[in-house]
Amino acid sequence: MKQEKILEVKDLKQHFDAGKKGVIKAVDGISFDIYRGETFGLVGESGCGKSTTGRTIIRLYNATNGEVIFNGKDVHSAKSKKDLKAFNRQMQMIFQDPYASLNPRMTVKDIIAEGMDIHGLAKNDQEKTARVHELLETVGLNKQHASRYPHEFSGGQRQRIGIARALAVDPEFIIADEPISALDVSIQAQVVNLLKELQQERGLTYLFIAHDLSMVKYISDRIAVMYAGRIVELAESDELYNNPLHSYTKSLLSAIPVPDPEFERNRERVLFDHSSYNPEGSELREVKAGHWVLCTEEEMKQYQV
Amino acid sequence: MDKATEKYSKEKFQRVHVREELSEELTRPQLSFWKDAWLRLSKNKGAIGGLIVILLIVALALVGPLMNDYKMDEANYDAAYLPPKVPGLGWLGLDGMQTYEVQGTTVDDAVQRGITGYEIEEQYVLNTEVVEEPNESNDNYYKVAMEVDIYAAKGLDDTYYWFGTDNMGRDLWTRIWKGTQISLLIGVLAALIDMVIGVLYGGISGYYGGRTDNIMQRIIEVLSGIPNLVIVILMIMLLDPGLTAIIIALSITGWIGMARIVRGQVMKLKGQEFVLAARTLGANDKRILMKHLIPNVLSVIIINTMFTIPSAIFFESFLSFIGLGLVPPDASLGTLIDTAFDDYRVYPYMLVFPAVIISLLMIGFNILADGMRDALDPKMRR
Amino acid sequence: MDPILDVKNLNVTFDTYGGKVQAVRGVNFSLKKGETLAIVGESGSGKSVTTKALMGLIKKPAGKIPEGEILFDGKDLAKLDNKQMQKIRGKDLSMIFQDPMTSLNPTMKIGKQIMEGLILHQKLSKQQAKERALELLNLVGIPYPEKRMNQYPHQFSGGMRQRVVIAIALACNPKVLIADEPTTALDVTIQAQIIELMKDIQKKMDTSIIFITHDLGVVANVADRVAVMYAGKIVEIGTVDDVFYNPKHPYTWGLLGSLPTVDSNEEKLMAIPGTPPDLIHPPKGDAFAARNEFALAIDFEEEPPMFKVSDTHSAATWLLHENAPDIEPPATVKKRMAGISVEGERQS
């Protein structure tokens, strides 16, 4: 079954000018497709460019090079206000820091309704209030919370308000930028469960950005591993987990602490030599069906053995 | 034993169904940011004290001049240099008595010299007291304090000047409160102008960043490199001396501090995730500025403005004191102090009242602003 | 063997403008020589405050220790004043903080920062201190220590900085090392390195470690014993095997169940509903009752005492009372309890 592509990223580059130090290549030529209705995980350690990738896709940054094709249209060449507004409704984002992602001077109602105000989705205040209440219920909060201010909520509750805000404009595609990394363990599960439920109910597509591989493995259908601005490996999540090929993926997987003392006692870490990493001449090649690795022609043959 | 079993009876170990909504309830009362800040401020005794002092002074500045029939520029040379006299408050020292210090070879000689020197009839001298016996350092003169009922001496028995009069016989009560009015007006206007220019300049510079910011910041650097006093003196020489000149002079560089603070805040805020969230929702620049940035910078703006007011008042007084301020008969606290300074050894009351008022204003505003900073400081809340 | 540190009925409160926060409400535990005790809990559970109390870092006058004893070396640390505490802090008790960026002085060379404590507490000469500092940098695995001594913190990466912090903490051979989320700010691969380093050092120096974290994976790796904290109390304490393979408290079940296992792709995670209680007004009875799907009527009336499960293991839940109904832990947790095989498959 060939699935429909909702998003195609082609050779995306995002370089920042860092003055005398030269150019920082935060994202250095990455390509991937995301299919409608799936969850695509993007993992990597801090500074690997995963968040920049997400922000560039949603146009918070203008790409240095490359194309982002969403629903068949290149979003980075869209210029008319109408096109951009339509794009803003279809693609939404959930942010990392539950304390910084809500405006402290706005009530929960105003925060959630912001998208409706901008796009004129509610005819009157009554309709808007009703919709906000409905959204609050969807994310597991009470109607009474609408008139409160963000500082009165806990991290998990705030994150759910952030999700409600994104949902208010009925998007098809949501970029979740480390949505759980600032939350407590028990609260992480609440948010992940909520995201999964919403996906089933509304047929959402997620780009799930995180550094916690175990949670990404749980929520994602396919996972891409990023290192130094490039994707080093991309595969279905079980395949990636059980059969990692790139040495960086292996080291990353072997470093995840597992909540099982017996397993931890017998753990052996795979070390990755950062200084020997040289992507020159390498490109993302399909080693097996659906399993891509950043490698040279020769390395590919080795992987395939 | 029985008790223990009773206490832990089987019924108590029934399972209970937990309602999920219940655990999401917020137990603390609902508070908006400003209500919360006010609660915090009202618990700060110092700040409330400062606020009361300011309100009292403002009220007196408005009502004070209407409380008697004297006008602020009504000169009466017969009534010059009268000390404060308030009916019923004589025990506080506000009894219209003037003490002169006179010298002479004997006590009587000193008093006689005083009587001729100050042109008073002898019957009004109520009291004399030797302050210093003759000795080497004062050329063997007696130094005598001579208390005179100066109101009676000038034939003004039934007249009361609550804060006394100045060298031209103008009522100081009226002049001081009028002067306070002017000082407050200068402080508030200068602070408001600083605020408007500073917020706009800093906001634009911070929000647009890049080249715009670069150019705007260089301009600020050049401006702040020129000594303040030089600009002020130039401005006052250029414009006609008076209220407008002083306010313009104060504002011409005063906004720089505000602009810098606002720029820093805006730069910090515009990268925050809630601003990014608004942008992904399609919000335009105007919406982001009005709904997201300015409300969040507001507390800093208010705090900074609160600190600007007293420093503007003080700067105006300083200018008046060095002779660059208002031109008489207009009065501000600064010009009053300037006039009083000439004779403050003989007529200290002329200096005391405006000096106390300006000090109270400075302390009041600073304590209040400090309290507001604590109350509004976003770092203290989570 | 006698414990090196014994905490009895520790209470810590903070006065805030909203009211008095009862951050720690009667915590008991002891620490033996050479062991690692992990304290796990969510933010606001009182785990960090507990260790701050141990270090005498509760800020007065807002923070108070109204009750409780911290017995260390025959002294009750809770009663010492700041000056007496300063002699112990950094010498017998040392602490590693979460953020290596902020726990180093950015304007001071690394070497000097390490030597400072040595000169202050151990009265070493400058030359001796320098030699010892080099030794320590070697110990924590910093390459080219002679060169690194003369560098500033900003010239170090996050992981290297945390190594320096550890070197400083170890400088005076402390008897107890308190690590407050030492790896949370680091990437997983760096985290693994730092944990390995700490275990290695512990073996060499026989230090006792209190390791605060919210990451159960890290706990499983480092801990000999585990204390689970919730709303200012220890709700379950035992050896690492007790807590992971035979958990008794529903909150521990919730924590374990909220983590995905390798083959749990299709199942829902066992999230704990709601949010932790407000410790300005701690609820009556068991603080966890409102979020506990296995709550009993008595949970809302009376706080459960610590029930002994075995010599090493106890938990504060009424489910362990003889009158309580038999309640099985949820399925996902059961699978985890038998977990060895589940996780083992991955590597093969």
From TrEMBL, chain A:
InterPro entries assigned: AAA+_ATPase (IPR003593), ABC_transp_ATP-bind (IPR050319), ABC_transporter-like_ATP-bd (IPR003439), ABC_transporter-like_CS (IPR017871), Oligopep_ABC_C (IPR013563), P-loop_NTPase (IPR027417)
Q: SUPFAM superfamilies annotated for this entry? A: P-loop containing nucleoside triphosphate hydrolases
Keywords of this protein's UniProt record, alphabetized? ATP-binding, Nucleotide-binding, Transport
Looking at the record, the residues that make up the ABC transporter domain are 7-253
- Protein's organism: Gracilibacillus oryzae
Protein name (Swiss-Prot/TrEMBL) = ATP-binding cassette domain-containing protein
Describe the family membership recorded for this protein in Swiss-Prot or TrEMBL: Belongs to the ABC transporter superfamily.
GO BP, sorted A to Z: peptide transport; transmembrane transport
GO terms (molecular function) for this protein are: ATP binding; ATP hydrolysis activity
Q: Which PANTHER family match?
A: D,D-DIPEPTIDE TRANSPORT ATP-BINDING PROTEIN DDPF-RELATED, TRANSPORT ATP-BINDING PROTEIN
Q: Which Pfam families match?
A: ABC_tran, oligo_HPY
Which residue ranges run through the membrane?
none
Automatic annotation (TrEMBL), chain B:
Query: Which NCBIfam families has this protein been placed in?
Result: Opp3C (NF045475)
The annotated topology with respect to the bilayer is: Multi-pass membrane protein
UniProt keyword terms in alphabetical order: Cell membrane, Membrane, Peptide transport, Protein transport, Transmembrane, Transmembrane helix, Transport
Q: Cellular component per GO?
A: plasma membrane
The organism's place on the tree of life at top rank: Bacteria
Query: Could you tell me the Gene Ontology terms of the biological process aspect for this record?
Result: peptide transport; protein transport; transmembrane transport
Where does it primarily localize?
Answer: membrane
Family annotation (InterPro entries)? BP-dependent_transpt_permease, MetI-like, MetI-like_sf, OppC_N
Which PROSITE patterns does the record associate with it? ABC_TM1 (PS50928)
> What is the organism lineage in this UniProt record?
Bacteria, Bacillati, Bacillota, Bacilli, Bacillales
Source organism per entry reads Gracilibacillus oryzae
Subcellular location as annotated: Cell membrane
Q: Entry's Pfam families?
A: BPD_transp_1, OppC_N
Protein family? Belongs to the binding-protein-dependent transport system permease family. OppBC subfamily.
Q: Under which name does UniProt file this protein?
A: ABC transporter permease
TrEMBL record, chain C:
Q: Name the Gene Ontology molecular function terms of this record.
A: ATP binding; ATP hydrolysis activity
ABC transporter domain: residues covered: 7-256
What InterPro entries does the entry give?
A: AAA+_ATPase (IPR003593), ABC_Ni/Peptide_Import (IPR050388), ABC_transporter-like_ATP-bd (IPR003439), ABC_transporter-like_CS (IPR017871), Oligopep_ABC_C (IPR013563), P-loop_NTPase (IPR027417)
Q: Which UniProt keywords apply?
A: ATP-binding, Cell membrane, Membrane, Nucleotide-binding, Transport
Instruction: Identify its membrane topology class.
Output: Peripheral membrane protein
SUPFAM superfamilies under this entry? Answer: P-loop containing nucleoside triphosphate hydrolases
Q: Do you know which Pfam families this protein is assigned to?
A: ABC_tran, oligo_HPY
Compartments, as annotated in UniProt: Cell membrane
**GO CC term (a single one):** plasma membrane
Instruction: Write the protein's name.
Output: ABC transporter ATP-binding protein
